[in-house]
Structures are given as structure tokens and as C-alpha cells.
Amino acid sequence: MPVGLGYDVHRLVAGRKLFLGGVEIPFEKGLDGHSDADVLIHAIADALLGSIGERDIGHHFPNKDERWRGVSSLVFLDEIAGILLKRNAAIENVDATLISEEPKIGPYRDEMQRKIAGALNIQPSQIGIKATTNEMLGFVGRGEGIAAMAVASVAFKKSSA
Q1: Which of 40, 83, 98, 113 has its CA 20 to 30 A from that of 24?
Q2: Cβ atoms of 90 and 152 closer than 8 Å
Q3: What is the pTM of this model?
Q4: Where in the chain are the domains?
Q5: Contact 47/152 with Cβ under 8 angstroms?
Q6: What is the CATH number of domain 3-156?
Q7: What is the pLDDT of residues 106-150, one digit of tens each?
């Protein structure tokens, strides 16, 4: 079964909204980036693209392309679902972990699952979302950024030709 691995990190900055898993989280800082900088979705996107041997999110949605400025990263997942469909690949599951001292994501986890699953046209039960801290170590531990990692597995469907 093909699998892909994704990792992303973004700096926390004042003056931006925080989006994680397609959900706006009330917090005093947001993630810096060209799109909404949703680190969780970006890691999932790279995992899905990697599972079919595609190039990374930056290749498909370059930060120099104004079309992607400020866009919800859920749009990236919708586009990637189309790429998978064209390659006859069906998502089996996605498992992702957010790494951040704060904010706590427990109250938002179910909504994140629903939004991600909706963008990928799969069931929320196929999406695992966990969170952990960095035990106050490094840039994540100092609250300077948020990291995420994800793994995705796909199955290739037999063509009916």
C-alpha cells in the first residue's frame, strides 16, 4: 500500500488569524505564510502528494502565484483530491500530528476532521488528528511557531477498461 509523509512548519506572528485543519482558532497570533498558512493541512497535502509520487505542495501551489495568496488551504486538498482521482488513487487514511505548546486543539478536533474529510471527499473516520507539545524545547517550545507531520496511505483502483 503506497504511503506518503508530510511535514510543515510556520512561524507564529501577530496580526494574522490562526487556521488549523481548516478551522479558525481563537488565538492572539496566526501563522505566517502566503496562503492561510494552515500547517496541518500543508503536512497532509504533502503526505497525499507523496503517496502517489507527486512533487510537493510548493510545486503545485507556489507561493509566488498570486492566485493562492490568502486562500484557504482546504482548496489545496480539494485540488489534490482531483489529482488523486486522475491517478486512480483512493485515500485509505490520513494520520496527522500538530506540534505546539498552545493553543489547545481538543475542542476543534472533530470540526477539523469534518472539514478535511469534506475537502478530500472521504469519511471523517479516515482522518486521524492528534496534538502534542514540544516540552518547551526549541522554536515550538518557545511559542515561535507550529509544526505538523502527517502520513497518508492510498490504494490504486483497478481501471474498468
Answers
A1: 83
A2: no
A3: 0.95
A4: 3-156
A5: yes
A6: 3.30.1330.50
A7: 999 999 999 999 999 999 999 999 999 999 999 999 999 999 999
